[in-house]
Amino acid sequence: MPPERPPLLARIHWYWTFQLAGWSAIGLLTLQSLSFNGMSWAIAGTSFWGAASGLALSIAWRRWLRRHGWVGRQADWKRIIPGVLALGALQSALVALGYFVLRPFGSMRGVDWLPSALASWTGIFLVWTVLYAMVQSLRRANRFEAEALRLEVLAKDAQLRALQAQVNPHFFFNSLNSVRALIYEDREAAAHMIDQLAELMRHALQAGTHATVPLAAELDAVRAYLSIEQSRFEERLRVTYAIAPGLDQLRVPPMALQTLVENAVKYGAEAHADGSDIRITVQREQQVQDGGAAMLHIDVANTGALRSAAGSTCIGLRNARQRLRLLGGDSANLELREQAGWVHATMRFPELP
Is 284 helix (H, G, I), strand (E, B) or coil? Predict the structure, then answer.
């Protein structure tokens, strides 16, 4: 597949466009001012001569400025101003040469024209230099901004990879503990759990290469995980799903929903002798925030009370919060709350590309 061509505006060489347009305009204005008593080839030639010599001098001046760095991070006006004065004098001399050679109005007499010519051409080159310095400053600012954005994206990507690397071992540690608890009681069930764990490992490895995954893939991993845990807890773990239709292909942070479900199992079924109900709800909020971005609402609730377990590092929830913030911005959040005998872990974030 051939590479995409950049937009038309990006392909235009703006320096030459404005150079040719500007000096052509100066030539036309000169032609208009000289032809008040009629047009002649000498008058047209003189006007062209002035515009062409100005164009040539401005090109040479630009090369001088770039080579000596006079319009680098800060314009060196102490050196630029004498250079502009010298350009005005040189251009006046070149235009005078054109008058002498082409003689649009006959032989030149006196130097009454010299002060106005010096002032005009010096002013033109001063304006040219100021505009060029401004353009260079804007280009430099845009380049620095683009570089800063690129570094920010790289930093976020590196942080995402590091956080995912922390989450996956955390998840596998808990899953292997579940297998270990069953292996001496029911070998067939343990073998089935190992198969399920292999599927989860495959999902985790694939998810670790992407910043986001489809919701459907994340839900498949959650169902496999809960299948493992239901083999362990049996009737003590009761799971219900409320997934709104049409959301399967929406993107979510990998292992984020898994982390919330894992947390619900740990502090629900595992912490209570009579087990726990777990309810997983996914829906698109009707409320629209952040300039029109619809919010995805994911809630994992378990029966019980909100409390902290001894020895818990809460690394999974902390990483899930950080990954949501990196991917979804300031509007993304993860909160824990207790309501009417249920503990809710709720993620809200803009729909991700």
Answer: strand
CA distances from 161 to 56, 165, 317 (A): 54, 6, 16
Q: Is 302 left (phi over 0), alpha (psi -120 to 50) or beta?
A: beta
- At 289, is the pLDDT very low, low, confident or very high (cuts 50, 70, 90)? very low
Strand partners, 331: none
Q: Using an 8 Å Cβ cutoff, are 45 and 34 in contact?
A: no
* Residue pLDDT, tens place only, 316-348: 788 788 888 888 888 899 999 999 889 999 999
> Is the pTM for the entire model greater than 0.70?
no
* 242-275: pLDDT as tens digits: 999 999 999 998 888 988 998 898 888 888 888 8
The CB-side HSE value for 190 (13 A sphere, CA atoms) comes to: 12
**Sheet bearing 276-289, strands edge to edge:** 237-243, 276-289, 293-303, 342-350, 333-339
Helices (H) and strands (E) in the chain, counts: 9, 7
